[in-house]
């Protein structure tokens, strides 16, 4: 079993992933911006837009885990949705700096120990909109599409060191955010999904669980959609 760090693991998909990996028998630490306690989970504070904070979070996590991080699940992310013509530089840069550059900072810190160990798992949480596109989400879609290039570049660079890097791309998921959408909007979204429903967080967690497992040792650079068929062909 592995020592795992899940970024943004204090709620939603990240929390579901962390709890599934714990059930699988892994040692798990999660990050959140605040570092506030989460029932049943070890939490460290981390601001992924700051390299020093990322380094400190990994150091703290390594202390809790009793050794270097062997699997990184990069889930932390933000949205600032608005139409392109209304989107400010700050709206674009804040999302890209968190979702893409923040993930880069975490991956860079994680692979140092993985290269020495000649083993490691990296799973990046993207989104169906990264390849499918979404109006009002130019910043978010760009940041999530970038994760595919990141995973595939890491695969080509470090694959010979026993390190895998893969992407999980969820569609619409049953979270607090989707629950707040008007019922009419939810039904419109569901009508576009071949499965005619939103995903459960545990279904996303199941895909991550597989990619962290020994069974996925020869899978790298892959994009695993968990979207009910919404983005197929993209």
Automatic annotation (TrEMBL):
Membrane-crossing segments per the record: none
Domain Ketoreductase per the UniProt entry, residue ranges: 2-176
Keyword Cytoplasm in record: no
Presence of keyword Glycosyltransferase: no
Enzyme class: oxidoreductase
Record EC number: 1.1.1.100
Keywords: Oxidoreductase
Pfam families xref list: adh_short_C2
One Gene Ontology molecular-function label: 3-oxoacyl-[acyl-carrier-protein] reductase (NADPH) activity
Family to which this protein belongs: Belongs to the short-chain dehydrogenases/reductases (SDR) family.
Protein name as it appears in the record: 3-oxoacyl-[acyl-carrier protein] reductase
Source organism of the structure: Janibacter alkaliphilus
């Amino acid at each position: 079993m592995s020592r795992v760090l899940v970024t943004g693991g204090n709620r939603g998909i990240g929390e579901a992933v962390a709890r599934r990996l714990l059930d699988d028998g892994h040692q798990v630490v999660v990050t959140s911006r605040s570092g506030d306690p989460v029932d049943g989970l070890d939490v460290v504070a981390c601001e992924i837009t700051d390299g020093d904070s990322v380094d400190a979070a990994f150091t703290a996590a390594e202390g809790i885990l009793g050794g270097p991080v062997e699997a990184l699940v990069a889930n932390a992310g933000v949205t600032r949705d608005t139409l392109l013509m209304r989107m400010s530089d700050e709206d674009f840069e804040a999302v890209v700096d968190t979702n893409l550059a923040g993930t880069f900072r975490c991956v860079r810190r994680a692979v140092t120990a993985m290269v020495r160990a000649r083993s490691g798992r990296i799973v990046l949480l993207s989104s169906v909109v990264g390849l499918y596109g979404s109006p009002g989400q130019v910043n978010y879609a760009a940041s999530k599409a970038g994760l595919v290039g990141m995973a595939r570049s890491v695969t080509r660079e470090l694959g010979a060191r026993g390190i895998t890097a893969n992407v999980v791309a969820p569609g619409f998921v049953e979270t607090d955010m989707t629950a707040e959408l008007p019922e009419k909007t939810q039904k419109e979204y569901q009508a576009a999904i071949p499965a005619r429903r939103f995903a459960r967080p545990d279904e996303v967690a199941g895909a991550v669980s597989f990619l962290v497992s020994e069974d996925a040792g020869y899978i790298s650079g892959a994009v695993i959609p968990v979207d009910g068929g919404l983005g197929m062909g993209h």
